[in-house]
Design brief:
Alpha-Beta Plaits; alpha+beta; eight-stranded antiparallel barrel
């Protein structure tokens, strides 16, 4: 993403477009009651995409987690924190959320896993293809520094690209206060996130095999990166829903 993903999609997103840039991005991961994910997906795609965008935010994409059958993941973006506060106030105080909130909330066990992020780089790809995404969430031992960002760009990204991975977004924790406290965000991790696109799960595994077959990655770049983290990265394989703009 050259700033993060987000041109506001049409109500039925085209297969050859990706969302256009937003400075502020929420990465929202919901753990649902068993067997309720398809219910939320249908409701979300039908009622909550264009109505949120009508309030001034951008729904970047919504996904099924391929490895967690009861998890639903989505991203939305804003140009700045003031726009975020105004858009959230308009949507959550509006008629669509009031009409459907009980049905949506009834699918959820936990909706508190929310990262407030700042877009570092979005690769604008004007020919997005159907596929899947891999989100890598790193918990840094300290705040993001210019040196760390350069290390990603000069060491990590080239190895990912050489292995055949399409890096579509890079994001870090946004430290501005959450000025919409009705929707809490996590404050327990200093996040550095990148998101890659693959044709399908087999393509993702093939690229991972190529990555770890590289001695530079395996013996130098990856150990140096891991040394800057408090814990092992979390990785989520995400399948876009039928109504997702980010495909």
């Amino acid at each position: 993403m050259t700033e993060m993903i987000l041109e506001r999609p049409a109500r039925a997103p085209a297969a050859d477009t990706v969302p256009s840039p937003s400075a502020i991005v929420e990465l929202r991961r919901y753990h649902l009651h068993p067997g309720r994910r398809d219910t939320l997906v249908e409701l979300f795609d039908r009622e909550f995409v264009h109505t949120q965008e009508d309030c001034g935010m951008r729904v970047l994409g919504q996904f099924r987690d391929l490895d967690a059958p009861d998890d639903f993941v989505w991203l939305r973006g804003f140009r700045n924190m003031a726009e975020r506060r105004a858009a959230l106030t308009a949507f959550y105080g509006g008629p669509v959320w009031r009409r459907h909130r009980e049905a949506a909330n009834a699918t959820m066990q936990d909706s508190s896993n929310v990262l407030l992020l700042r877009n570092v780089r979005t690769e604008a790809t004007h020919a997005a293809r159907a596929g899947m995404l891999l989100a890598v969430v790193c918990d840094l031992a300290g705040p993001v520094t210019p040196q760390l960002a350069r290390r990603f760009e000069q060491e990590v990204r080239p190895c990912l690209v050489a292995a055949g991975m399409e890096v579509q977004a890079v994001l870090t924790t946004e430290h501005a206060p959450n000025d919409y406290p009705a929707l809490p965000v996590r404050s327990d991790l200093e996040a550095f996130v990148w998101i890659c696109r693959f044709d399908d799960p087999a393509h993702q595994l093939d690229c991972a095999d190529r990555l770890f077959a590289s001695a530079i990655w395996r013996d130098a770049v990856w150990p140096r990166w891991l040394a800057m983290l408090r814990s092992a990265p979390q990785m989520f394989r995400l399948q876009p829903t039928a109504g997702s703009a980010w495909r």
